[in-house]
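User: quick one, sequence for these tokens?
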């Protein structure tokens, strides 16, 4: 897919806007209805949005798996509906990649809307971003929004700032605490314990400031795109800040290293401006140390990019609360100060079209 000539920024949300919910893959809303209802409640009561549940939102998992075209059509309906201003995924699911052949990229360009999903839904966000849309890697209804009541209040403030605000510069900040859990099941079991994050963001290597447009998502989900027509051309990565989320299956640091080899062999470490790695779920401190060593050894040692800024343990991925990263958003990293911010708004004003 060619690199778009210009980015299409969705309109910022405002109270009373309609958000459409659809499932790109999983039927977890049927299996864990309490978590789903909690997420819907956050949208309605905490964020003041009207919720429109599409056909796939509460559909059975077996039916969803058998109907990739129907899932894509649900997405099309949401983007073609002028009353809908945002489309949120209910959850992820590894089957997301199967809907890509049925998605018409033109729907993203005709009426740009906020599209937000996370983790396994990365292939859909990547497709939308390559079509020109600024797409949002952030909490889904069941994985992130449903847990809002058990995480620092800064989380909902962050959601409002990213999706409702339009600051020309927005600084990301660590939450300082996190939940480690099975995301979709958290609300149907004993609530997980909030943990303090003593480690904080870790600058593995790099000095000074760099900036670039964000691209990335779930590590394993991105692997499903490699070698297909949906993987970006090499030039797409020029000057990008790549962000990678360690997958839900908790691969060890060595497995992450093997995956990163694929990026290195493609020459992407010579093209990108920086690398952000999310906080891994299920790692103990020795594994976190090992992951950071692997990152440095691969990027600097194996592929010679000793100058490439690499920041690890950032608040996105399979722990909550998550930071929202807009694919296509212009981000700046200050390695010396351990600061990260959006250098321009990913949205157009709420009063605009």
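Assistant:
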């Amino acid at each position: 897919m060619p690199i778009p000539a210009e980015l299409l920024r969705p309109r910022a949300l405002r109270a009373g806007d309609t958000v459409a919910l659809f499932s790109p893959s999983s039927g977890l809303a049927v299996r864990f209805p309490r978590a789903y209802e909690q997420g819907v409640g956050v949208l309605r009561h905490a964020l003041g949005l009207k919720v429109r549940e599409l056909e796939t939102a509460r559909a059975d998992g077996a039916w969803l798996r058998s109907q990739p075209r129907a899932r894509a059509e649900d997405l099309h309906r949401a983007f073609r509906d002028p009353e809908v201003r945002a489309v949120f995924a209910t959850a992820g699911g590894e089957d997301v990649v199967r809907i890509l052949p049925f998605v018409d990229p033109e729907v993203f360009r005709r009426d740009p809307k906020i599209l937000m999903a996370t983790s396994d839904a990365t292939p859909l966000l990547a497709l939308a971003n390559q079509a020109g849309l600024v797409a949002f890697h952030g909490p889904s209804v069941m994985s992130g929004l449903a847990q809002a009541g058990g995480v620092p209040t800064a989380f909902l403030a962050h959601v409002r700032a990213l999706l409702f605000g339009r600051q020309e510069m927005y600084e990301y900040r660590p939450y300082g605490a996190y939940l480690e859990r099975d995301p979709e099941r958290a609300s149907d079991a004993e609530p997980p314990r909030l943990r303090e994050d003593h480690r904080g963001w870790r600058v593995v290597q790099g000095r000074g400031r760099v900036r670039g447009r964000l691209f990335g998502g779930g590590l394993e989900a991105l692997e499903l795109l490699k070698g297909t027509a949906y993987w970006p051309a090499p030039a797409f990565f020029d000057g990008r800040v790549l962000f990678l989320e360690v997958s839900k299956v908790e691969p060890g640091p060595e497995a992450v290293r093997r995956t990163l080899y694929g990026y290195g062999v493609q020459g992407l470490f010579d093209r990108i401006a920086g690398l952000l790695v999310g906080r891994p779920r299920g790692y103990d401190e020795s594994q976190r140390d090992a992951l950071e060593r692997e990152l440095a050894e691969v990027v600097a040692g194996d592929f010679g990019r000793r100058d490439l800024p690499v920041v690890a343990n950032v608040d996105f991925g399979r722990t909550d609360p998550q930071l929202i990263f807009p694919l296509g958003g212009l981000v700046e990293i200050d390695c010396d100060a351990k600061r990260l911010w959006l250098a321009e708004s990913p949205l157009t004003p709420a009063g605009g079209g």
